[in-house]
Write a structure and sequence with these properties.
Shape: elongated
Strand content: 5-15%
CATH topology of the largest domain: Rossmann fold
Number of helices: 23
Helix content: 40-55%
Largest sheet: 7 strands, mixed
Distance between the termini: 72 Å
Strand order of the largest sheet: 3-2-1-4-7-6-5
CATH class of the largest domain: Alpha Beta
Radius of gyration: 30 Å
CATH architecture of the largest domain: 3-Layer(aba) Sandwich
Length: 652
């Protein structure tokens, strides 16, 4: 564990608290995704001129890696100490009292460990879930090993629930103890506290104690073998089915992040993987993210996921007090022997958090096995943490976006209607593969939820590669917006250039058939799968000189109608949008616009609003309609053709 301290002397205690908190937070072997907490005690003068001692403690919802001064809740220290003297205190009462003792009503809720921070008689207090220490405590003789490492320099606390109960336990165990003789507190199966009146010393104690644990593991030869170098197997269709089964069990669409890194593949090859991976989480804090255990997949993933859900329901029944509401029984991660490890989430962020926790967990399991065996807390303790009301509050149960968890693929995504569709889908919570011939697509959006893929949709191999990349990256496919197109130069049938005709048919018709054909097996395993074809008003009302474009779009429309008939049995909806007068798209160059306006004897402005409503139609408005077709509003509709053209007399 490296000591990263390089700060110059500062007089502001809170600024130092922010600095050392970030040093701890940037080390994933110490804390992960909101884990850990820190504090500083400060004397201040209130508005009445009175001196008050405040505890600035990390607020709930803040991450140590990025925390700012605003992330620390200022709480009156004396109130917290009085709370510790109470004989009992419910979680909700604790939260209410802590919040009522804050001097800034706009600050976040204080950490659930605020009372404990108040009781530790030092200015700076640091708490982490250091992997090495938690790993050692998750073994058969974990406490004995901790004592071998630290002797009497640390206070060892058996696992109890965090919050008020833990604070009371430590208060009882430290009666008559000289705190100056302690360098830290080890919480079995939970983590470590260090403290000092000097910010640097408290931080350096954390680094030193954790380093000693790491050195102990090295001395015990508790080292993971080098990972396998063999290329992993791949079954993308099975991955999509796994994602579908988990989503259906969850009752909501999920992203499935497949990890095929050598370290993960090696873990799945472990001969006892089904046993060691299902003994419990690295720390009980992780259970709200990962559930107690992953699902172990085999030859029949659907059945194994169903069995996992049944087992979870039985786990709940064994441990509930009869007053709790069961959480959804879907797994949060899966061990897929020889193929990889899958992390599930409603968003890319959630899935990545679970994946990060998984990385640390499988490493700890393998190290603990070298120390005689991985052994976590009893099931009842893990259950109590999973259903602890304060932990549940961390999950932030806000309303989901309309397309949350859905996976979409959009062609022609670098501009016009395609780009607008990508942006609209993202705004509604979807994850998107954005395809375009323009190579700038790979960096155009700059969001983890949007994967830009360079693809020429007239080349079958590139289509296949792009679709496979989408499944590999996100786990499945629910929405296909087949939009890529080209507005051909105006030519009469008599003067038609064969290249003009062939190019239009290739891009505006054949590419859509090839893409739909490639996507169908994955859409069949999608969640409420929907295909939206972006066609044209020219299908119903063609104009002279536009045969190459109109015929191809008519063919695309007919393709979609037949697809609706064929794919309905698979649960795939296929609907068509017929835009017109959408001039903020790539096909409407200034030259094309001027030619079409001239053809009808209109100015460009007149041509743009040449519809019944005398209005322009934008790409964003077409995208809004596409999202509606992909969502629940059109859940009972297939084979429909919807114009969005401001009203066209010839169409009507």
């Amino acid at each position: 564990m490296k000591n990263l301290w390089n700060a110059k002397a500062q007089n502001d205690p809170l600024a130092l608290r922010v600095y050392t908190s970030r040093l701890l937070g940037q080390e994933s072997a110490l804390v992960l995704h909101g884990g850990g907490n820190t504090s500083v005690k400060v004397n201040t003068t209130n508005i009445f001129g009175e001196t008050e001692e405040l505890l600035y403690v990390k607020g709930s919802g803040w991450d140590l890696a990025t925390i700012e001064a605003a992330g620390f809740a200022p709480v009156k220290l004396e109130v917290l100490k009085k709370m510790a003297r109470l004989s009992q205190l419910s979680d909700s009462e604790m939260v209410r009292l802590q919040r009522s003792a804050m001097t800034d009503p706009n600050a976040p809720n204080p950490s659930v460990e605020a009372i404990l921070h108040a009781l530790i008689p030092f200015k700076y207090v640091d708490h982490t879930h250091a992997d090495s220490i938690v790993t050692i405590t998750n073994t058969e003789i974990g406490e004995q090993r901790i004592r071998q490492i630290y002797g009497n320099r640390v206070l060892i606390i058996p696992f109890v629930m965090p919050g008020f109960i833990l604070a009371k336990k430590i208060d009882e165990m430290t009666q008559g103890i000289d705190w100056a003789t302690l360098e830290g507190i080890i919480l079995m199966n939970h983590g470590i506290f260090t403290f000092s009146d000097d910010a640097k010393k408290s931080y350096e104690r954390m680094i030193q104690l954790v380093t000693e644990a790491e050195n102990y593991l090295q001395a015990q030869n508790a080292i993971i073998a080098p990972p396998l170098k063999a290329a992993p197997k791949e079954n993308l269709l099975a991955l999509a089915q796994i994602r579908k089964s988990v989503s259906e069990t969850k009752g909501a669409a999920m992203i499935a992040i497949m990890d095929t890194a050598p370290e993960s593949i090696s873990f799945t090859h472990h001969p006892q993987v089904a046993s060691i991976a299902t003994r419990g989480p690295l720390t009980p804090d992780h259970v709200i993210r990962t559930k107690p255990i992953p699902v172990i997949l085999g030859e029949n993933p659907e059945e194994e996921i169903a069995n996992y859900a049944n087992a979870y329901c039985k786990y709940f029944e064994r441990n509930t007090n009869g007053q709790l509401t069961q959480l959804n029984p879907a797994p949060c991660w899966a061990i897929w022997p020889e193929l990889g490890i899958i992390s599930f989430g409603r968003t890319i962020k959630e899935a990545n958090i679970i994946s990060d926790i998984k990385d640390h967990t499988i490493q700890a399991i393998q190290i603990a096995e070298k120390l005689g065996g991985w052994k976590t807390l009893p099931e009842s303790d893990i259950f109590d943490m999973e259903y602890w009301e304060l932990e549940q509050a961390k999950l932030g149960k806000g309303a989901s976006l309309p397309l949350q968890g859905k996976i979409a693929l959009v062609t022609g995504a670098a501009s016009g209607i395609g780009r607008a569709c990508v942006e609209a889908l993202h705004a509604q919570g979807a994850t998107i593969a954005a395809l375009d011939l323009n190579p700038t697509i790979t960096t155009l959006f700059g969001k983890k939820e949007i994967l830009g893929i360079t693809c020429d949709v007239t080349i079958d191999e590139e289509i296949s590669k792009a679709v496979e990349t989408t499944i590999r990256h996100f786990g499945g496919l629910d929405i296909l917006i087949s939009n890529a197109g080209l507005f051909s130069p105006s030519q009469t049938i008599a003067e038609m250039n064969p290249k003009t005709w062939d190019s239009s048919i290739a891009i505006n018709l054949t590419s859509h058939q090839r893409l739909l054909q490639t996507c169908t097996p994955y859409l069949a395993k999608g969640i409420e799968a929907a295909v939206i074809m972006i066609a044209s008003k020219n299908v119903m009302a063609p104009g002279p000189g536009a045969s190459a474009y109109s015929v191809a779009k008519a063919g695309q429309t007919q393709l979609a109608r037949v697809a609706a008939l064929e794919l309905g049995a698979l649960g795939i909806r296929v609907n068509i949008i017929h835009p017109n007068a959408v001039f903020d798209t790539g096909i409407w160059t200034t030259e094309v616009l001027e030619k079409r306006a001239k053809h009808y004897g209109l100015t460009v402005e007149e041509y743009k609003t040449n519809n019944i409503l005398k209005t322009e139609v934008t790409s964003k408005e077409v995208a809004t309609l596409a999202c509606a077709m992909a969502g629940p509003i059109f859940s009972k509709t297939t084979g429909a053709q919807v114009p969005i053209d401001g009203g066209n007399e010839r169409v009507i």
